[in-house]
Amino acid sequence: MKEKLFIIFNDWESKLEKDEWYFRNSYEDLINGLTSLETFNNIPDVISVILTIKNSFLIGETIDFLHELYNTADTTELHPHLQENLMLINKHIDKYADTYGKDAYGEFKSSIRL
Length: 114
Description:
This is ABC transporter. 78% of the residues lie in helices and 0% in strands.
């Protein structure tokens, strides 16, 4: 999943210009056909991407995707990888995310009762 996200992020500006729903459609394509367990098991890849990227817009989009993974997995169970990396994620969000990303992260944390 990590590699597929980076492919989605490649030249994202021009793709988004052509299709305002580019990210939503791309994310749905990644999730379609996955079971709840498969979706849950992909959470570490998405966390890895969040910790790698420094573009504030893409951070917000990736947090939205992480939130969607949790919705699709239909759980509020804290993934062990998320729990282990929570401090790093918080620092990364504080440093690189814009207001949208920080708000999205707050909504995500609230939705999983974090």
